[in-house]
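Input record (one chain):
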Amino acid sequence: MAQAYFRQRMFTPATFSLFVRSYPPNRGYFVAAGLEDVLDYLTSLSFGDRAVEYLRSTGIFGDDFLEYLRGVSFTGSVRAFPEGGLFFADEPVVEVTAPIIEAQLVETYIINQVNLQSMLATKAARCGWAAQGRGIADFASRRTQGTDAAVKMARASYIAGFQSTSNVLAASEYGIPPAGTMAHSFISSFPSEIEAFRAYAEAFPSRTVLLLDTYDTVAGAWNAVKIAKEMEARGDRMVGVRLDSGDFDQLSRQVRVVLDSAGLRYVNILASGGLDEYELDSLVQAGAPIDQFGVGTKAGVSADAPWSDMAYKLVCFDQRPVMKLSTGKVSLPGAKQVFRIRGDDGRFAEDVIALQDEMHACGEPMMQQVMSGGVPTGLSPSLEEVRQRFGNHFQALDPRFKILHRPARFPVSVSPRLKRLAAEVKKEAIAANVSAAC
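The corresponding structure, as predicted from the sequence alone:
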């Protein structure tokens, strides 16, 4: 496409909207994430010698176009929902305005990053809602689809309320608290479980969390009691024990009895292994005495909803609004703004999708200018600020939109002016492209 635009001398600015057409199963909201990576990518967009020579080797592209690519950088502007904010189906979460070649070239990367990270942050938010205040650690790294996804999962889940990650690279990169315990291999490498426990407690006297289920969970709990008493004699305290298999409800109750009977009420119980929001909700509602959760595979791949119908569509070219009329995939024309209206109780009540230059007396504009002339505007928020924004937005969302099964649909409407424009553009498009062909 870029070469065809180039040959037609089409360098006019165009606007593309990024949005999700519909909700995946059991979703009622999305958490915006991935914008920081998009801005970093746009800032450094270029075609070096290696890239140009590879394209030349394909035999697909002309020399004149390849030489043009050597000078390409991103010179446009970006407006977007800030990371950590909540958005809803059909709302533009990012809008890119740039010369059409630049705006088209960045499509795949933008969809990839915002789709992945928003999907993971949304899954994490649902886990946090189900946990009802109990701590959650990201244990997803080993089974995400690639190492980059593992790092992005750690960041996205931290934005959405997780407290820590087992991914040391992500902890180092983003300043997320690291967390981890032992594996079954550590225990089975020792002659006995209690010797493994003892060695671990000596190595980490202030961070001891013992894995109980290598052989027998309840027997493991009694071994943990012995180690905890040895630690107390040295002036240390065991942090917790971990369950990783079996009936978590029943086992957590049995382990709690063992610990409490030994005067170890301060020792927490952590559960991990195949958990996501649905299992967390069942355990919390049942009153299982579990203090923290390690959430891995199912959250790291968003197992019940591993993709979303996110699209990046041209909505304006050369100041002319355009739209797509494909069945089931109609897009709204023109650059846009989303206004969020709150009720008297301070909670989110309704969103209105409007044209960019519209005003709304009662609504807060959600899309912010984050890049202009190819340069980010203002300072990037810290990860803690993004995390706080999520907390504020999530608190302002009524619980009926958060429930895990078939949540209510948050009301999103289209402004009268945008509706009129859509009708006009549709009529013109049909007249020019359908009627004339017939």
